[in-house]
Request: fold
Amino acid sequence: MSTPDIPPAPRIIARCHPALAALLPEPQTARAALPDWLRTMPAQTPADTLNGDPVRTLKHCPPFLDALSLGLMMPLATDLHFDRGAVSWDWDPPVLPDTALSRAPIALHLPEQAKGAPYPLAVNSILKFINFWTLETPPGTSLLFTHPLNREDLPFRTLSGVVDCDLFRDGYVHFPALWLDRDFTGTLPAGTPIAQVIALPRGTSPDLEVTVMTDTQIAANRRLQDDLATTPGTYRKRFRH
Reply:
């Protein structure tokens, strides 16, 4: 089937202070930062509810995979060590007298700053991952910063925000996050994805129309549902760009 012309992906330029270039993990395309558990996940597995018959796993779900692969991933700058709510690090970046950027890889928001929001706080604060990269987008392009999609394995939940990085290209966007497990003890290694970045054309809210299906559309819908139920890979082969 024919597809409409797709405009080229916007070019995002990530910059860091030259004195930090050798220390920092670099942002990556999300496709290059897929989690290890996805690589090791079986393609099929026996289902107890189907008497052991095999079922396909999420590894066969293109929408799930495309969400994991969308945009960019911003990495954690250095190892963070957690011990039941306490956090520490062994990192000593150079003093940068020409910038006001923090030397600490993490900061805190007071819990009162989220008063009224239905957020569970496992610790008495909201963490803020410090980002040491500026991001520049083409004119008219904003960036959505959000928790890495489908990454429920991470012990935090990054809050989402949209920044007009065509204009805010010289500033740092930091990432507030809810810590989910007060008793977590372990290390978040440098390079852990802490925010997924998705480019958005600004000022393009959808023009929504709500209506009912015609008889022709009902018939087409039924044919498609039958194909999805009987032919594995229908979406991937016929509709996925």
In short: Residues 13-43+60-201 form a domain with the Deoxyuridine 5'-Triphosphate Nucleotidohydrolase; Chain A fold (CATH 2.70.40.10).
